[in-house]
Amino acid sequence: MNEVWKRNLPVPFFSQRENNYQWQWIAKDTGEDFREKELTDDEIKKGIEKKLYQSGEAIGFPISLADSSCNVTCLAMMLQYLGLTRDTPDQIMTKVFEGDIDRYKRYIGKARGVSEKDGYSCVEYISVLESIAQDIYNIRYTYSSSSYTLENVKQEIAAGFPVMVSCGIVRPSLAWLEKYNSLSDEAKNTPKWEYRGHYILIRGFTKNGDVIINDPWGKATNDAGRLPSAEINNKTEDAWGAYKANLTAKTNNGENIIISQADFNRQYKNAFHSTMIVYDRRWSFPFSDMKFTWISNGEKFIPGEQKYISR
To answer: What residue segments make up the domains of the chain, in order of their start?
Structure first.
């Protein structure tokens, strides 16, 4: 492979911090979701023994998904770049959670350990994100892998496709965030960190081989493109935890961020946790110096065998 992979794809950017969608547990039918409601004092006085939620009623309080929607946000960036939709992350989540009930239940079934009670977590699974692309946006060709290396990603970038990758991220613990407003100034400046899952989108490489990403959470590097070391429980994480979230709104723009190749290799070692690529497109790639051909077997697309040729 020549160095055509040293390019920066014009992928649009969304920040998950700006997502407004709020998920709420909704009783979908009168079968498995049929649950008892807490009785009011007046209902108890009237001798009512049991009251059930009806289909369509909300159970519990709305939950903001801004904190946990890096996955859908990256998907929106990919789909918009390929001309497949103009939907925002909020619009995608509305279609997933408030669209076809049977389809939503299938997504929950694909997500191990997820139930109706925490159904919003189903989009954390690559298999569900692929199904969303196929079911809602009629995309035929997607590919996911848990063994992709940086060399594989370079091939995709060379062919004009951004790659969603799971990187994990060191972020403040939820317990610390919940207590934030009552903390002293000193405590606010010394957060308790924990390791959590996270998705970013690789959009290209510099001439020096450094990695260019869109990070829906924000800029994790310093101005020199370095990932700071992160400490969890007083232990410095050299890999799988080097990717540390910033907290300041001033630097939360994660668009077109460059990470040094050395730090990227330190973060990932030999392979990514998981990756996803969408291969459909509805407009020609905007590269005047290249054209692309595709190897296929009938209707079945063979990932990893896309080739490029000069005009």
So the answer is: 3-24+54-310
What per-residue confidence (pLDDT) applies to 285?
56
Of the candidates 302, 242, 241, 240, which has an alpha carbon nearest to the alpha carbon of residue 271?
240
Give the CATH number of domain 3-24+54-310; options: 3.90.70.10, 3.90.1150.10, 3.40.50.720, 3.40.50.12160.
3.90.70.10
Distance between CA atoms of residues 204 and 156, nearest Å:
9
* Length of the chain counted residue by residue: 311
Rounded Cα distance between 171 and 167, Å, is: 12
Contact 97, 22 (CB under 8 A): no
Q: How many other C-beta atoms are found inside a 10 Å radius of the C-beta of residue 160?
A: 21
pTM of the full structure: 0.77
Residue of 235, 223, 212 lying closest to 6 (CA atoms) = 212
Burial per residue of 220-232, b for 16 or more beta-carbon CB atoms within 10 angstroms, e otherwise: bbeeebebeebee
Q: Which residues pair with 278 in a beta bridge?
A: 142
Cα 133 to Cα 201: distance, rounded to the nearest angstrom: 16
Predicted confidence (pLDDT) per residue in 173-188, tens digit = 767 777 777 888 888 7
Which pLDDT belongs to residue 167? Answer: 76
